[in-house]
Fold this protein.
Amino acid sequence: MIFPDLTDAEFRKSSYSGGTNDNCVEVATNLPGLVIVRDSKDPSGPVLTFTPRDWTNFLTSIRANDF
């Protein structure tokens, strides 16, 4: 299994994460061909990786309330 180099990943907090909300998600979209998602409370912990297309499909499904 090949793990991407996340050294240059620029994470931003989700606009749906409030200042006092403990459920915060950060997303990095600046790496070519990857979208990286992590828990803001554990920045050195595990990450989820998506292709941009899969990430768009995931967000579309959420917005359509498919889950």
Summary: The helical segments are 52-63. Strands lie at 11-13, 25-28, 35-39, 47-50. The two ends are 29 Å apart (CA to CA).
